[in-house]
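Researcher: I'm preparing a figure for a lab meeting and need a structural model of a single chain. I don't have an experimental structure, so a prediction will have to do for now. The sequence is pasted below. Please return the structure as tokens so I can convert it later.
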Amino acid sequence: MKREKFSGTIEQAYGKPLATAISYEAEYDLFENISEVRSANEYPSDSDVVKFLNAQKKANARQKATVAALDAAGIVKPTLENDSQFRLREMVKILVAAGKSEDEARTLASATLGIEWDTE
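Model: Understood. Here is the structure written out token by token.
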């Protein structure tokens, strides 16, 4: 086993944007081979494998059905090419990652792209 560290930033909590992003760091033990999994007694049982694979198949089918239903309803997935508000949000993410505050990033993104934020 080896120890692995990772970090991230939380920009939303419980469905709402945070005023200030919160950074976090964590670490965990990473298995390097199957014998380590078995010796740690964490190898899944046959029923765990069946449950996992069935959940995976159900999630895949749900995702395909959702996309088909949205397509049939004429709802288009927002992309950089077809949604100006999406472009603004993506640019804000980049600017915040570069060290700008959320407010600065929103103002700069709007001015740079020449797009106003929707008031919804």
